[in-house]
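User: I want to check something. If I give you two sequences, will you return the structure for each one separately, not as a complex?

Assistant: Yes, each is folded on its own. Here is the first sequence with its structure:
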Amino acid sequence: MPTQTMRAVRLHEHGGPEVLRYEEVPVPEAGPGEVLVRVHAVGVNPPDRYLRDGLTRVPGKAESTVGLPVIPGTDVSGVVAAVAADVDGLAVGDEVFGLLRFPGFDGSAYAEYVAAPASDLARKPAGIDHVRAAGAPMAGLTAWQFLIELGHDHPSPFQPAPHRPTALGTDTTVLVNGAAGGVGHFALQLAKWKGARVIAVASGAHHSFLRELGADQVIDYTRSRPEDLVRDVDLVVDTVGGPDSRRFLRTLKRGGSHFPVFPGDFDEDETAKLGVTVSITQVRSNGAQLAELGRLLDTGTVRVAIDSTFPLAEARAAHERASRGHVQGKIVLKVA
């Protein structure tokens, strides 16, 4: 019996967007604990580009498990096509979405079919389409695990202590840097859902969008430095992170917290003197949490903004769009 084939995007070498090849490969089989998903849409995330550029080991992993050629991608939305014998709760025909096998680079989502751990999946909210569902998992779970509930006890590769979200309520002020991006626009909406006052930092082109999402104050970082304008916030969520993230420490009140999504450069003596906490975590696949987020998506309490869509065959163009920056929401690949 001939092997069934599908179309997928693979890397045979590392490099720029031009190394993404659209080609024919075997359809995977669902192993124990897995379902086979007929993919309708795929979310494009920073780790996809890191893998393409040559990063093959995620923080916390002792060694790389990536061998070339490899299919990148972790975020999917689609329909269950087959179910392993040991899987309960999902059936052929169910619409699902999920963040697959993260942290790791073996999600293999840029394809017409993917074998997905059932525990990584949740039922797709009926109120949104596959494109928006595919844009939610990694960015939405990152915001959820930073702000709402960590949801696991795995050691952090970034700090010895477990990350603990800050309690959010009507007496809380949250500053979100990079608020228009994938994680940022989810963080803004989740903080508003909890009743917090939110200060959003982004370029001026995104300000009406951020007001629509509920931002109470919007700062254009191209005109003003937010650390010169803001004081006494309870929480900073910096979705940009990196070496400059420490500049936001001065915006916090004593007892406040700073959550950089990407590791920054912080001085323990400085944070102790200021009386603030810096904490970071690593997003992990979690179907149960995604189901909770899905209920907010279904009711419209939280929405997924789509920057742009591309056919799977044009993954290169999607990566080129991502590299230009100033993304509003998510970039998604549509699978025919």
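And separately, the second sequence with its own structure:
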Amino acid sequence: MTEKEQRRQVLSLSETLRGFEKSLGFKNDIKWISAIVITLYHVAAVYWSYHYAFPVKWQTILFAILMYIISGFGITGGAHRLWTHRAFKATLPLKLFFLAAFASAGQNSLEQWVRDHRVHHKYSDTEADPHNANRGLFFSHIGWLMLKKNDQVLIRGKQLDMTDITGDPLLRFYNKYFIYFKLLFCYILPTTLTIYLWGENWRCAVAWQCFIRFLGMFHSELTVNSLAHAYGYKPYNKNIVPRENRFVAFVTLGEGWHNYHHVFPFDYKAAEHFDLFNFGTYFIRLFNKIGWAYDLREATPEMINSTAKRLGDGTPVHFPLHDY
């Protein structure tokens, strides 16, 4: 086949895919490589876990739960509350812990994560929101990762001030080599430790670390964009889409009190109260006690009560087990 014929086939395939996208009614072009990889990863996870996840040693399950918590804290404590919202400050040891923990979650790079989330907050549930909940539950949960960003998302993302991330030498180095950190902390180290520390079968180790634990945290984090924008109540501002969702709060270590978080995004607790589900706040307070986390920002009770009375839906918020 000549080079000209090859070029003609590629163009023909591109036109076919674009026509397929339009026939499905997509507003954005499909990122076919991402869509295929995400789909196949889930198919492989079901097949592999069905055949190799059991029998399993109790240490393997316990370590998978531990890695779920660590990777979750890397997202909620590090990428979200520290770097996106600057809700508190951290010493170098805590930053390094957060970076390793975030890498273990297998997300996009920290810079991408922060940019997407800042755009989400500034233009929540509009066409400039990367995971606009008004486009449906599937899109806001995982579909947005399979599609190219529309023009509004790209424009607003470029307009954001990201100098606190791009100008930090530590974060520049981290983002430059992020793919290697992700491979190491998300897949290689957890799986290898599972095999060599207590002699787990390698197939079982892969099932629990690369599939069950990873996808468990992956989808838990995505529920903040989907379920917490679709189900729940709005005690702080009834005029916005984000809601308080206890299930989301549980699986994400405290990120489900989403109506409050969108009203007071700077609050390090991401909730009015510290309750049983808000493990992220517990961890931050623990590091605060040893001096690794400091300058914790939070909304005052007067500010919260005033906003809730003016804008809330009247839902009582006396569910937490612990107050300030």
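Because they were folded independently, the notes below concern the second chain alone. The longest strand covers residues 89-90. The longest helix spans residues 58-84.
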